[in-house]
Specification:
By secondary structure, the chain is mainly alpha-helical. It has 3 helices and 3 strands, in the order βαβαβα. The chain has a 3-stranded parallel β-sheet with strand order 1-2-3, with helices on one face.
């Protein structure tokens, strides 16, 4: 994508923060442009890494499956690793975005 002029690359949805971080770390080694990450707020498994493939999707899914602290930790790590754009995808709400802000603030204060 960068060879075709993409100014930013990234990943979003289907994966919880920890799984998305693994993917974006692999991508980081292949690109030099800014990166974005927008994980979903649903737990997945090694056997079924995408929440839309879980047997309980869609009608038996809990509205929120990961604690906000997972998003806070993800944002802190992502900031430390040079991910420039963060957001939330399916299952995220204002509380998750606020958790991202807390994680970013922690990373910023450590860097200062």
């Amino acid at each position: 994508m960068t060879d075709r002029g993409a100014a930013i690359v990234g990943v979003n949805c289907e994966q919880e923060p920890d799984r998305l971080l693994t993917i974006i770390r692999e991508m980081r080694g292949a690109v030099k442009v800014p990166m974005a990450a927008q994980p979903a707020a649903f737990r997945t498994t090694d056997a079924i890494p995408c929440f839309t493939r879980l047997p309980q999707f869609p009608d038996e899914m809990e509205a929120i499956q990961i604690p906000r602290t997972v998003c806070e930790d993800f944002a802190e790590i992502a900031k430390d690793e040079g991910i420039q754009y963060l957001g939330g995808c399916c299952g995220c709400n204002a509380a998750y975005i606020r958790a991202y802000a807390r994680g970013l603030a922690t990373a910023e204060s450590r860097a200062a």
